[in-house]
Specification:
Layout (H helix, E strand, L loop, with lengths): L9 H21 L12 H12 L14 E3 L2 E3 L6 E2 L2 E2 L3 H17 L8 H18 L6 H16 L10 H12 L4 H10 L2 H18 L8 E3 L5 E9 L4 E5 L2 E5 L13 E5 L6 H10 L5
Parallel strand pairs: 5-8
Antiparallel strand pairs: 1-2, 3-4, 6-7, 6-9, 7-8
Length: 292
């Protein structure tokens, strides 16, 4: 795409975009970005996040696919349809109306404030699913929407921990939601709003990153859900977490669920229990109540 940097190679542009957007995303998080980037959870708020994040690279940053498109001072026709892989997103002619509708509904729900964690995670997952299906911008939707949702969660009192979520998982749950199945997105949000599960998920991510580097982003990584049964080969085990290959995915859980004496390489079957909080985990370790 045409860009302010004059880059003609797609790979070079992608790297430059990541570098610039990472810097600008930090400014949004630390409060040094324009106030509009921490706005009223309406369409202008979303536009402001996108504009600040990608404005160094694209002249059209902050412009939805339903807004007038200006390139090099000239008005251009917006592409009527956006298709990525096999997913067709909202048509350009209805993008703005659908976006306003989703965010008006969010305002009617008081921005999801005053909800239990479980209720918030389910409704927030549906909001992100709807925003992703609209796909308001030509590029940069994922990063913009995650920042928007992170701010939404903070003001609702249920912080999101996206750090342990791989690109592969985000791609799959977004695809599922685009096909009308929001359950995998809801499960993701249930994990990343739960401090205990998100902590263990992050441990698994860090272990795999040490092992595979950035290739960890191509792994579908999930944490155990209490009451569910898992079977597979242990890939890693220590006193804080284990990683298991299970039906093609990698599952991270707490070692309290493993059979005593099990070690990496063993094939095991477990029924998951609730992952302990950090305080509970420290108490276990101090009292040596469990031998992993």
């Amino acid at each position: 795409m045409k860009n302010r940097l004059g880059i003609l190679d797609a790979g070079t542009l992608s790297q430059a975009e990541r570098d610039y957007s990472a810097l600008r995303a930090t400014e949004i998080k630390d409060g040094s970005a324009p106030a509009a980037t921490r706005g009223h959870f309406d369409a202008d708020h979303l536009r402001a996040i996108h504009q600040h994040t990608f404005g160094d690279v694209y002249e059209w940053a902050g412009t939805t696919r339903g807004d007038p498109l200006i390139l090099e001072g000239q008005r251009e026709t917006q592409p009527p349809q956006l298709i990525k892989a096999t997913t067709a997103f909202e048509g350009a002619s209805t993008v703005n109306a659908k976006l306003d509708g989703v965010l008006a509904s969010l305002a009617e729900q008081d921005r999801l404030r005053g909800l239990s964690r479980e209720a918030f995670s389910r409704q927030a997952a549906d909001v992100l699913s709807d925003l992703n299906q609209i796909h308001p911008f030509r590029e940069g939707n994922g990063r913009t929407q995650r920042e928007f949702m992170t701010q939404l969660a903070d003001q609702a009192g249920h912080p999101l921990q996206f750090e342990g979520v791989t690109q592969q998982r985000m791609t799959v749950v977004s695809f599922d939601a685009a096909q009308g199945d929001k359950e995998s997105m809801r499960r993701l949000f249930d994990e990343i709003t739960d401090p205990a599960r998100s902590r263990v998920l992050q441990r698994g991510f860090d272990t795999l990153h040490q092992r595979y580097g950035d290739q960890v982003q191509q792994v579908y990584l999930t944490s155990t859900t209490a009451g569910e049964t898992y079977a597979g080969q242990l890939q890693h085990k220590d006193r804080q977490h284990f990683i298991m290959d299970s039906t093609g995915d990698k599952v991270v859980g707490h070692p309290q669920d493993l059979p005593k004496g099990s070690s990496a390489g063993d094939v095991v079957k477990i029924t998951a229990t609730p992952i302990p909080s950090l305080a509970q985990e420290k108490q276990m370790q101090r009292g040596r109540h469990l031998e992993y």
